[in-house]
Amino acid sequence: MKHRIVVLGAGYTGAIAAGRLARRLHPGDTEITVVNADSDFVERVRMHQLATGQDLKRRRLSDIFAGTGVRLRLARVTAVDVDRRTVALVDADGAEEIAYDTLVYALGSAAADHGVPGVAEHAYDIAGKQSALRLRERLNGLAAGGTVLVVGGGLTGLEAATEIAEARPDLDVAITARGGLGDWLDGKAQRHLRGVFDRLGITVHEHTDVARVEATGAVTADARVIPAQVTVWTTGFAVHPIAAATTLSVAETGQIVVDDTMRSVSHPDVYAVGDAGLAEGPGGKPLRMSCASGTPMAWQAADAIAARLTGRKIPRVPVRYFNQCISLGRRDGIIQFVTADDRAKPSLLKGKLAARYKEVICKGAAWGVANPMLMLPTRRRRLAAPRTESSTAATA
User: Fold this and answer.
1) Measured on CA atoms in the order 86, 131, 222, 164, is the torsion positive or negative?
2) How do 217-220 and 210-214 pair as beta strands?
3) Each residue of 101-128: pLDDT tens digit?
4) Would you place residue 227 in the very low, low, confident or very high pLDDT band (cuts 50, 70, 90)?
5) Is there a contact between 39 and 62 (Cβ–Cβ < 8 Å)?
6) What is the DSSP letter of 93?
7) pTM to 2 decimals?
8) Of 32, 35, 44, 196, which residue has the fewest beta carbons closer than 10 angstroms?
9) Which GO terms describe its biological process (predicted)?
10) What is the per-residue pLDDT for 377?
């Protein structure tokens, strides 16, 4: 009987893990199934572009996995039973359960409202394709002079605010940040950031907490009202609640706690990658939810699974950071070089060069997903013995 590997989610991390496993394991011994609700691969790092009217290249998952041996199942995951090793699915034909021997959990995350009243009812987000398209439609309906407020001064907020302001210079765009604008960046990067915001006419509300969102804007913690016809919520991400409903060991965030091979600390036949996994990075700090973390997590998980199943030595490459790539519209940006644990160094790229640098990074990431059999030499190894993943726990 073939060893059944089920990958939940086909974003960057799930698609990368599946493709890498297909290159590492012999199809005569393994069956790899990817479950995803959308038929297309979504470039999540470009959702601010989609929201402002730009059309993104379509990448069908059926084309991506063609010829790899990976099976694609278009369905929505409704539950996981890690004790029975089954996944509950719903598709156009109804509900079903599928079984696995090894599970790669890569369901990702969605926008987090942090319990702030009014966010669900009145705010927009760009955490996924459908929500970005919803914002796109709303922005298209705004007349000149319309007001937009971006709540959240992190990477997503900076990119959303500048993209909207550049695409629609006829709108009045503002942003709120709990701290100073880009205050985690190097001083030179902060100065460039402020210059871009000034050039684009973006109003900045620093050291501001939003306590409530209303149809006509936001109310701050100190009772100030910031008017906005459209409020865009970019204050972080929350993982899918499915993992927390299982017997898996999860953190307070709902993320699955994993070791340095991205394997669950409580269930050795489950791996979690991307936003869904809580892994320790350099300096003992948890890896942040990002593509920069998720991609190497997927590499590590796939290589560890393949090594354990084929009886080979498990490669361990520490996940570390090199830079933060920030697009500031289509023609400007900041590449902030950072330490291994993600602290800003006094070195950066800015302006058009930074914009081109980030575009290369984004295109490279998408190309890697879309061409899974071309990334590395294909060495499809046979399984060491007909055994389940959990039986290898003692030799990890």
Assistant:
1) positive
2) antiparallel
3) 999 999 999 999 999 999 999 999 999 9
4) very high
5) yes
6) T
7) 0.93
8) 44
9) aerobic electron transport chain
10) 63
